[in-house]
């Protein structure tokens, strides 16, 4: 192993260790946001599916995806609608079909639970020295770029025909 590879391995281990320490310190504030939401785990899962789909979903499709009866899924969706997390509407292509979409409130709630990062809050970032803030911005941008490249590569691979 050359010096650059050795340094990369040491830095990678250090970053993992630092993230473990961060995760331990941020669990209490994260749990408070999780506990404040009045949704069941299954409702959160369905909401996650709705948030990740611009086209929304049908009750039948969700029931099949989650392996539950249509009656169970309909009741779950009723509760999400009653809480303002989802809304039902007609399918644009086929007016006989009802589609369910996440509302802005549903998207905000899920985003707050999943992407809540108190360690990157303004109150923390404002206390960092400028040089550290610049380095953090550069590192986060690099991670975003690698993940973006992976997503693009995966999407390209999915659209290739088997003979390519």
Structure commentary:
This is HTH marR-type domain-containing protein. It holds the Pfam family MarR_2. InterPro entries: HTH_MarR-typ, MarR/SlyA-like, WH-like_DNA-bd_sf, WH_DNA-bd_sf. By secondary structure, this protein is mainly alpha-helical. It has 3 domains: about 1-35; about 40-115, Orthogonal Bundle (Arc Repressor Mutant, subunit A); about 130-164. It contains 7 helices and 2 strands. It has helices spanning about 5-35, 40-50, 60-65, 70-80, 105-115, 120-125, 130-160; strands at about 85-90, 100. Strands 1-2 form a two-stranded antiparallel ribbon. A hairpin with a 7-residue loop joins strand 1 and strand 2 (about 100). The longest helix has about 35 residues, at about 5-35. The two termini are about 35 Å apart.
List keywords for this structure.
single chain; 164 residues; mainly alpha; Arc Repressor Mutant, subunit A; two-stranded antiparallel sheet; 6% strand
